[in-house]
């Protein structure tokens, strides 16, 4: 009789911990840093990695610092910015940083493939912002899906083998009750369908 009570509570706690690790480990910042460096390598090897570091700074690092700054001042809850209305403030700030990145790259003569990558990110952010005015679409799945789609265009279709990671990210967002299944699915489609044509048309 004494061994029956703990069982129902242990599994949800373990599931919650796993979902939190996935959400934090595969957050948008990490995808952005990875895709900028990998695309930079594809575009111009070591010189391209330099451009990738610049892109990672403006598209990944500065945005997360901006989010943490707002979190410390109580403007929004945490680095995942759970409340939809808070995202309407955060996303334009991120867009400004990404726009500065494109301007610098165009001015300094970055490889066209890198400019295409950052332009695709900016257009995706515009689409996310438009939807967020009405509905809380998943940024996690949009970024991860778009990143894999662009890597597949650069390196070949074998990169699509990473798509199960997007499903894993989506599961974690639903398990943590930060999004519904519909929101993670729409985010997945939005990321790929928005980033792909922009990247292809500019590169």
Automatic annotation (TrEMBL):
Coiled coil: none annotated. The keyword Glycoprotein does not apply. Keywords: Membrane, Transmembrane, Transmembrane helix. InterPro entries: PAP2/HPO, PAP2/HPO_sf. The chain crosses the membrane at residues 46-67, 88-108, 114-135, 147-171, 183-202. This is Phosphatidic acid phosphatase type 2/haloperoxidase domain-containing protein. Pfam families: PAP2 (PF01569). The lineage of its organism: Bacteria, Bacillati, Actinomycetota, Actinomycetes, Kitasatosporales. It comes from Streptomyces cirratus. Residues 137-199 form the Phosphatidic acid phosphatase type 2/haloperoxidase domain.
């Amino acid at each position: 009789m004494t061994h029956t009570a703990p069982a129902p509570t242990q599994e949800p706690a373990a599931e919650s911990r796993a979902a939190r690790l996935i959400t934090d480990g595969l957050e948008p910042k990490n995808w952005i840093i990875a895709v900028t460096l990998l695309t930079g390598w594809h575009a111009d090897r070591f010189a391209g990695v330099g451009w990738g570091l610049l892109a990672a700074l403006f598209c990944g690092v500065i945005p997360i610092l901006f989010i943490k700054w707002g979190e410390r001042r109580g403007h929004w809850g945490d680095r995942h910015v759970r409340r939809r209305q808070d995202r309407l403030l955060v996303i334009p700030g991120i867009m400004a940083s990404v726009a500065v990145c494109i301007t610098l790259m165009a001015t300094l003569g970055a490889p066209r493939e890198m400019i295409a990558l950052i332009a695709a990110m900016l257009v995706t952010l515009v689409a996310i912002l438009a939807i967020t005015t009405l509905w809380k679409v998943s940024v996690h799945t949009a970024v991860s899906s778009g990143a894999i789609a662009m890597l597949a265009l650069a390196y070949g279709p074998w990169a699509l083998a990473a798509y199960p990671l997007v499903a894993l990210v989506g599961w974690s967002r639903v398990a943590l009750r930060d999004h519904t299944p519909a929101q993670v699915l729409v985010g997945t489609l939005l990321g790929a369908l928005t980033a792909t044509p922009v990247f292809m048309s500019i590169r």
